[in-house]
Amino acid sequence: MTDTETNAEPDGGVEDATGSDETAATEVDPGAGPVPIADPELSEAALERVESLLADGRLADGPEVRAFEDEFAAYCGTDAGVATSNGTTALHAALEAIGLEDGDAVITSPFSFVASANAVRLAGGKPVFADIDPETYTLDPADVRRVLRERDDVVGLLPVHLYGLPADMAALCEIADDHDLFVLEDACQAHGAAVDGTRVGGFGDAACFSFYPTKNMTTAEGGMIVTDRDDVAERAASYVNHGRDVGGTGGYDHVELGHNYRMTSLEAAIGRAQLDRLAEHNRARRENAAVYDEALAEMPVETPTEPAGYRHVYHQYTVRTDDRDALAATLEERDVGTGIYYETPIHRQPAYETVSSAAAEFPVAERAADEVLSLPVHPTLSERDRRIVVEAVRDHFTTQ
Ligand SMILES: Cc1ncc(COP(=O)(O)O)c(C=O)c1O
């Protein structure tokens, strides 16, 4: 359930997470959809910025990208930002910048988008999984400790703030301190999420964000590394630009192997305009979630958890039921978009058959994969859209 006591924004703004009485509404035309699962939307300001860059011919890397890096890092409360071509390249470049070496093991969640673990492999490391907490769907610190008792090759933790809810960073950072591990936050789904007023991005050695169109803010494709560590920022900025000497003259001095993972100015322009609206959009997501929490309370689905002190930003509003597939089918018939994130845990993916711990069992993640269903929670949902979603869920359970 959403804990409305804890939803103060870290920057002091307080959200109104109440909604209208959706539970009382029963007059929705059953075929009144469609209600899409995501609805990325660009403002006039974004379009104007893009047009002005197009007119100037400033298309690739440049001052617009530097401005976006500074603004996004400031939003996260970190010293530096390094923009990238997407969230996957952000994770890969961050691991290279942190200094992951061939064969190093990194503990991450099996219940995430495959990119979380792929990035470790791309950087030459070994993803090792620990199970998740059944309520929050994020890494279970107790299971991380179990894994650490069993192996001595782990050098870092890569927790995922899944669906917009921060992982248990207090416990995970304590474990990292005890075992001298780095922490890289996968914040690709959690722009603006926070714990006790600290925004994600500020807990570990570095954090990575995705700006894919369905995310809480977008640049079309794009990503960002944020960090307080100067060495990581410098190495990441170099890595995304073919190992160029970032302190140099701007010429073609390449001091290390790197890649072209750069963001374009056009993407940065969209990102700056989206960042201006992030607080408003996250408020709308939280308001939608509060309406669903209340309306679905009496139905046989588990609604999302928001532990005390946490600020969930509802990248997804994910319910849980052992009747998941039938519920998804009913919603599809009613033109309500849904998503299953994720139907196959990473360790069960064919691409992971030969990777360490693929044969291991993570029962909590595996059960979640069978039972989760995400409902539309994006900021452009109307009151009517929410009513359509709630009615469709209610009708599914009452007409069985
Ligand atoms: C948890 C997580 N990690 C990493 C990524 C990768 O981001 P991108 O798609 O921008 O490469 C995503 C994007 O879906 C994600 O959800």
From TrEMBL:
InterPro entries: DegT/StrS_aminotransferase, PyrdxlP-dep_Trfase, PyrdxlP-dep_Trfase_major, PyrdxlP-dep_Trfase_small. GO terms for molecular function: pyridoxal phosphate binding; transaminase activity. CDD domains: AHBA_syn (cd00616). The keyword 4Fe-4S does not apply. Residues 1-39 are annotated as: Disordered. Gene3D superfamilies: Aspartate Aminotransferase, domain 1, Type I PLP-dependent aspartate aminotransferase-like (Major domain). Signal peptide: none annotated. GO terms for biological process: polysaccharide biosynthetic process. It comes from the Archaea. Keywords: Pyridoxal phosphate. Coiled coil: none annotated. It holds the Pfam family DegT_DnrJ_EryC1. Residues 1-14 have a biased composition (Acidic residues). Belongs to the DegT/DnrJ/EryC1 family. This is Glutamine--scyllo-inositol transaminase. It comes from Natrinema pellirubrum (strain DSM 15624 / CIP 106293 / JCM 10476 / NCIMB 786 / 157).
